Amino acid sequence: MNELDYDFTRRERDFGRVVFALTLDHKKMTERIVIGKAEETRVRLEHGGGEVYLDRTNPLGSLLFSFEADREKEWNINLSRLRESYGKVFPFEGKRWKLAQQSAAFLQEKYQSAEPAAIFAAIRTWEEYLGCYHLKHGPQRFMENMSQLYRPFFLYDEYKPWQEEAAAVLSKSLKDGDSQVELWYPVKKRPFECVVAFSSFLPVIFYYLHKVEEWGYIFQGCKVCGKSFLAKSKHYKLCSDECRKVQAVEAKRLFDENAKGERIEQLHESAYYYWYNRLRKLKRTKTADPERLAAVEEAFKAFRAEAVQMKNEVKRGDRSLTDFTAFLAETQDEVDSLME
């Protein structure tokens, strides 16, 4: 379905409250996030219609792993810029929008990102900016409301909510109103309960973590790509089919390398003992020629040194196995000729 495009240049707020709705599918291990006006979001979830800004289904845990993190506190910087523009009223209305333009560009960039929390925060910021302008103590209310929404962005820079020490930090950061969300129960085409947030992401994060714990899933790090993912047990080490394919290819490569290494060692060992047994036979001959014996011993010594060097070159990939096989065959002919 097509999704709406938000306009960060408009100067009048639309009617209706934009919400962030999250549903979790236990069996399929997926999350679905819908962002839109409350009534349109409900229609999308229940009937498949409705015009919304985002409707995305991802593997379970994606929101937690990719959640917006704000190391440089850019959200607060642009929030302050928007607040400062509140003071530029008629006849300086043009100045006000010029001051807000830079922050609007920042919000547009975040809106075009792939991160749902950033998309929702961008929309809510502009909606709140337009809505608070004509209110008493509007600038103060605007700053308070947005700071409440942005708070997890700063925490995510240092803490991850599934880490044991992060739970206490996130809990302490809760303030009045932070834990308020709506819970939409299953109905019609919406077979799962849906947690709906407006003013803060923290209750969404806690709800998510509670469900993960309730279902007995654990947080794992993928052995192939290193990304975090949710698994049904500790036995799951890979996060996706792509990583499973990569591991299968790597396992085959290692198997082939080991098999090749074993083959090289077998060829080398066989050639070595061919020389060794020929020399041993010559030594046991009562009528052995001392000069011939010395020549075979010297040739055997040279063979050992060259064979080891060539074997290592084949293992490193600097020389082909075919070259090594040919070399061993030639040296066997050499010892045979020396024995005649």
Principal-axes geometry comes out as elongated
Beta-strand share of residues: 5-15%
Specify the helix fraction band: 55-70%
* Unreliable residue runs: none
Distance between the termini: 86 Å
Secondary-structure element pattern, one letter each = EEHEHHHHHHEEHEEHHH
- Rg of Cα set: 35 Å
Short summary of the structure?
The protein is an alpha+beta fold and 340 residues long.
Describe this structure in words.
The longest helix is centred in the C-terminal third of the chain and has 44 residues, at 241-284. The chain folds into two domains: 18-231, no CATH class; 243-339. It has helices at residues 38-47, 62-66, 74-85, 93-111, 116-132, 138-155, 164-173, 202-215, 241-284, 290-316, 321-339, and strands at residues 18-25, 30-37, 54-59, 182-184, 194-197, 218-221, 228-231. It starts with 17 loop residues before the first strand and ends with a helix. The strands form two sheets. The chain has a five-stranded antiparallel beta sheet with strand order 3-2-1-5-4. It contains eleven helices and seven strands. With 340 residues, the chain is α+β, with helices and mostly antiparallel strands. The model has no long low-confidence stretch (mean pLDDT 85). The radius of gyration is 35 Å and the shape is elongated.
Task: Note the topology.
Elements: E1 18-25, E2 30-37, H1 38-47, E3 54-59, H2 62-66, H3 74-85, H4 93-111, H5 116-132, H6 138-155, H7 164-173, E4 182-184, E5 194-197, H8 202-215, E6 218-221, E7 228-231, H9 241-284, H10 290-316, H11 321-339
Antiparallel strand pairs: 1-2, 1-5, 2-3, 4-5, 6-7
